[in-house]
Amino acid sequence: MLTLEEATEQSGLSELDLVRLTRAAGFADPDPGARVLTERFVALAAGMSAVATIFGEDAGYQLLRVLGSSMARVADAVISAFLVNVEPAQREDPSGLAVARANVEAASLLPFVAATLDALFRQHLLSAQRVAGSSGADLVGFETQHLVVGFVDLVGFTELGEELSVRDLGAMLSNYERLAADAVTAGGGRVIKLIGDEIMYTAPHAVLACTIAVDPVEALRQHAAIPPVRAGLAGGQVILRDGDVFGPIVNLAARVVKVARPGEVVVTTDVASEAGWAGEARGAHTLKGIEGSVELCRLLPR
Questions:
Q1: Both 140 and 274 in a single domain?
Q2: Are 111 and 149 in the same domain?
Q3: Same domain, yes or no, for 106 and 24?
Q4: Alpha-carbon distance 135 to 237, whole Å?
Q5: Distance of alpha carbon 58 from alpha carbon 230, whole angstroms
Q6: What is this structure's pTM?
Q7: Containing domain of residue 265, as a range?
Q8: CB 109 within 8 A of CB 79
């Protein structure tokens, strides 16, 4: 492990640049004399000049922020999995050797984790590749695409938090996320993020987006352990940035899902029309934060 001063000398960067890179990667400023920087991280910092040459300095730093944030989530998930599933089983050993042995065995998996991240990254690059002209980009520094945005929302989650134990609530939420996320990815959509009891996804066209929404809603309608869900869809031009999606269409879809009743999929009429999906008119709605009224309809099960 290296101190900030040693890392500065080894990387050839100024202390100011190295601290800036450390912050962008998601780490606190190193204390003077503290050995907290690995040689691999210092090598990464030194290599950022090559990234800046290709993407530009600002874009390079933003890319590092996204990667750092993603790796922080992965690291936290690995630690949590160990603390929840491995360590408790070893606590009956009064000598502490079982826990120590479990830590060593877990550490031996690090090369596999690194190889897994590399394999997944390469596979996702293949899935995500597209050409600049296909996105219809019209904003400098941002990519735009015409997509359908969907939200799948677990109904009554707040009330469940008062009724179930923390363990049961966590297990139920995990099952819900797995089923809903699997429906999105299996159907050819992309999970953008999980927001508490809500899953946000995108699909390239309305037919796919509607199919993805209807399937988990129908599947969970009679699920014994998971409350019913509802979904809302809207389509149009969105901004893609740092793996996330932004814009008025996202806000619209987030409002539309709140109109749906448990077990329903509610969409804007243009999405239903584009998909050629049979629906039941819900009329014009005034939605919070959305200018004017929006014509909505409920999709009928296939």
A1: yes
A2: no
A3: yes
A4: 10
A5: 40
A6: 0.77
A7: 132-299
A8: no
Segment 56-93, tens digit of pLDDT: 888 888 888 888 888 888 888 888 877 777 766 666 66
What gap in Å lies between CA 240 and CA 246, rounded to an integer?
Answer: 7
How many other C-beta atoms are found inside a 10 Å radius of the C-beta of residue 276? 9
Cβ contacts of residue 168 below 8 Å, gap of 6+? none
**Model pLDDT for residues 127-184, shown as the tens digit of each residue:** 777 755 555 445 456 788 999 999 999 887 777 777 778 888 888 888 888 888 888 8
H/E segment holding residue 98:
helix 97-107
Query: What is the domain-level CATH number for residue 151?
Result: 3.30.70.1230
- Do residues 73 and 27 lie in contact, with contact meaning Cβ atoms separated by under 8 Å? no
Considering Cα of 127, then 130, then 135, then 137, what sign does the dihedral take? positive
Considering the domain architecture, whether residues 160 and 228 belong to the same structural domain is answered as yes
Please tell me the distance from the alpha carbon of residue 145 to that of residue 238, in angstroms, as a whole number: 6
User: What's the domain count of the chain?
Assistant: 2
> Pick from 102, 128, 154: which residue ends a domain?
128
Number of other residues whose CB lies within 10 A of the CB of residue 160: 17
Tokens 């243009």, located at residue: 270
